[in-house]
């Protein structure tokens, strides 16, 4: 007969670790720092829990503390490094707080956004981060009513706290680097994104500001806000060629997804882009391998998520407040002179 294995209780763990049940509870619940428990004591409790195979009763713990121990993140998709980076950092920050992260990808479909948000709130997530959502206002409102802490990333809202990339200054610095050394009459294009969208409109403002300061007509550049999909960017460039217009010598691509569309079109039509210079408001290190002058702007995904969790950890409401996070120029003329990137404010 197989011998049954005894399930250790919190009292067993407290006795083995040489401390109180209350201290063990705080350590296992992640609240030991707030109660100024000695880090050595916390580590001793955790190590002893591993030795004993102790696992807290999560259901009873949630009922007792009125917590679900769940955290939620909504993103459009996982296909590019920006959203993948947000997800990775969100998971790490959640796990550091003993929260189980739930990630929902919406494919930029408002119906899916509403469905996922309603489901997460019904599961009583303790916090929710929205990134790339079509209209966060409704979700902000129902989170507020349900008592769920909700933060927006790159989507400011008056009903909650928002953390945003410095889109205007980032696009301004990126455009200045893109046009540096080029004559004033070369054609310039802005490709990708959506009109009337917060981030795109600010990036256009920064783009035009740089054009004007460099002696160009801010309204003369071609602007093709075709969305974010690679296929849409490919078809937009195809349309330019089909209409007989000259392709730009300098092209600012608004998102790494649209950059994929440019790369696919360029691969088939390399002669059309001889001597061209490309900039992207987003980053992928493999772009440095392309035989074309490129500069990319890396959004600080670590900083964006960290600012969200700093707010979650604090007690202030700060509804309607925006915190700006500076992006970084990462690739310049293929190698960036051996540097790992520079803050755009330092340009």
Provide the descriptors you would attach to this structure in a database record.
Peripla_BP/Lac1_sug-bd_dom, six-stranded parallel sheet, 3 domains, alpha/beta, DNA-binding, DNA-binding transcription factor activity, transcription cis-regulatory region binding, LacI family DNA-binding transcriptional regulator, Rossmann fold, seven-stranded mixed sheet
Report what the structure shows.
The chain is built from twelve helices and 13 strands. The chain is 42% helix and 17% strand. The strands form two sheets. It has a seven-stranded mixed sheet. Strands 2-1-3-4-5-11 form a six-stranded parallel sheet, with helices on both faces. It is α/β, with parallel strands linked by helices. Mean pLDDT is 86; it is low at 59-65 and 332-342. The protein has three domains: 10-52, no CATH class; 65-165 and 301-327, 3-Layer(aba) Sandwich (Rossmann fold); 167-300 and 329-346, Response regulator (Rossmann fold).
Query: Given the structure, what is the number of helices?
Result: 12
- Oligomeric assembly: single chain
Mean pLDDT: 86
Task: Report how far apart the termini are.
Answer: 74 Å
Going across the major beta sheet, what is the strand order? Answer: 7-6-8-9-10-12-13
Strand content range: 15-25%
CATH architecture of the largest domain, by name, is: 3-Layer(aba) Sandwich
CA radius of gyration = 25 Å
CATH domain class name of the largest domain? Alpha Beta
CATH homologous superfamily name of the largest domain?
Response regulator
Shape: elongated
Major β-sheet profile: 7 strands, mixed
Structural class: alpha/beta
What CATH calls the topology of the largest domain is: Rossmann fold
Count of individual domains: 3
Total beta strand runs: 13
Approximately how much helix is present in the residues?
Answer: 40-55%
- Summarize the helix and strand pattern as letters: HHHHEHEHEHEEHEHEHEHEEHEEE
Unreliable residue stretches: 59-65, 332-342
GO molecular function: DNA-binding transcription factor activity; transcription cis-regulatory region binding
Keywords: DNA-binding, Transcription, Transcription regulation
Protein name: LacI family DNA-binding transcriptional regulator
Domain HTH lacI-type: 9-65
């Amino acid at each position: 007969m197989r011998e049954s294995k005894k399930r250790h209780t919190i009292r067993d763990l407290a006795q083995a670790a040489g401390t109180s049940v209350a201290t063990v509870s705080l350590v296992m619940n992640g609240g030991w720092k707030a109660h100024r428990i000695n880090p050595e004591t916390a580590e001793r409790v955790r190590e002893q829990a591993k030795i004993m195979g102790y696992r807290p009763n999560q259901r009873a713990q949630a009922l007792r503390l009125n917590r679900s121990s769940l955290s939620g993140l909504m993103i459009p998709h996982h296909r590019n490094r920006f959203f993948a980076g947000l997800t990775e950092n969100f998971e790490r920050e959640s796990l550091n707080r003993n929260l189980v992260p739930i990630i929902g990808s919406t494919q930029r479909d408002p119906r899916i956004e509403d469905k996922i948000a309603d489901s997460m709130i019904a599961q009583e997530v303790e916090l929710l981060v929205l990134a790339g959502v079509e209209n966060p206002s409704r979700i902000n409102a129902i989170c507020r009513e349900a008592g769920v802490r909700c933060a927006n990333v790159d989507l400011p809202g008056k009903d909650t706290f928002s953390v945003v990339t410095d889109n205007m200054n980032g696009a301004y610095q990126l455009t200045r680097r893109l046009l540096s050394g080029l004559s004033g009459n070369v054609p310039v294009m802005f490709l990708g994104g959506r009109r009337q969208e917060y981030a795109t409109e600010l990036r256009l403002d920064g783009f035009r500001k740089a054009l004007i300061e460099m002696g160009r007509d801010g309204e003369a550049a071609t602007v093709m806000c075709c969305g974010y999909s690679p296929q849409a960017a490919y078809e937009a460039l195809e349309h330019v060629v089909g209409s007989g217009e000259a392709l730009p010598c300098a092209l600012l691509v608004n998102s790494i997804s649209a950059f994929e569309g440019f790369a696919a079109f360029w691969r088939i039509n390399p002669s059309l882009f001889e001597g061209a210079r490309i900039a992207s408001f987003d980053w992928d290190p493999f772009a440095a391998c392309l035989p074309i002058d490129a500069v990319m702007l890396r959004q600080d995904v670590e900083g964006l998520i960290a600012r969200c969790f700093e707010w979650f950890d604090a007690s202030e409401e700060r509804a309607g407040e925006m915190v700006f996070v500076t992006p970084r120029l990462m690739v310049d003329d293929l190698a960036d002179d051996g540097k790992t990137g520079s803050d755009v404010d330092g340009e």
